[in-house]
Design a protein that fits this description.
Strand content: under 5%
Order of helices and strands: HHHHH
Oligomer: single chain
Number of strands: 0
């Protein structure tokens, strides 16, 4: 399903990794990644709150702890991943097939990073392997859709990054 979503949306434009315009100043990788982190984490955390309440069946105290730890660790993981990818990852080729292939790889690699964090967090708060795996499955499905939507939005409507082009 991810492949079809990426294939449908990415060929429309991969603006974030195209050469910046001659006039105007583009944001640095650090600022660009920060803004992408804010948009992704806002949507992902809005989805995690009801997910925590239904899947992990958290008490009020557990909900506060979960949300606090989740917000901090998720933002740190996403921001670090975005900065690393933008500085050291491959540049997106404007051709549709290469852009889709690269975005699939980027999405899957981030799902591994995020899944490891989710497993540690859910298991630490519940101590139940079955509840942790249930949370992981549902969270991955939701967060993948949010991730792909965020990537598409930034490639389609976001500004190009300034410092990636010096490579």
């Amino acid at each position: 399903m991810i492949i079809f979503v990426l294939y449908a949306v990415l060929p429309a434009g991969a603006h974030a990794q195209q050469a910046p315009p001659a006039s105007g100043q583009s944001p640095s990788v650090w600022v660009y990644s920060l803004y992408k982190t804010i948009t992704y984490e806002t949507a992902a955390n809005l989805a995690d709150v009801p997910l925590y309440s239904t899947v992990l069946v958290g008490a009020q105290t557990g909900a506060v702890l979960f949300n606090t730890v989740n917000v901090v660790t998720a933002a740190a993981a996403y921001y670090t991943y975005e900065v690393g990818w933008n500085l050291y990852g491959p540049q997106i080729d404007p051709s549709a097939s290469n852009a889709v292939r690269l975005e699939i790889g980027k999405t899957l690699l981030y799902r591994v990073v995020s899944s490891a964090r989710n497993v540690a967090l859910a298991y630490a708060l519940t101590g139940s392997p079955s509840v942790t795996l249930g949370f992981l499955a549902i969270s991955n499905a939701i967060d993948t859709v949010v991730y792909v939507g965020n990537e598409y939005g930034w490639y389609q409507y976001g500004p190009p990054m300034a410092t990636v082009w010096g490579r």
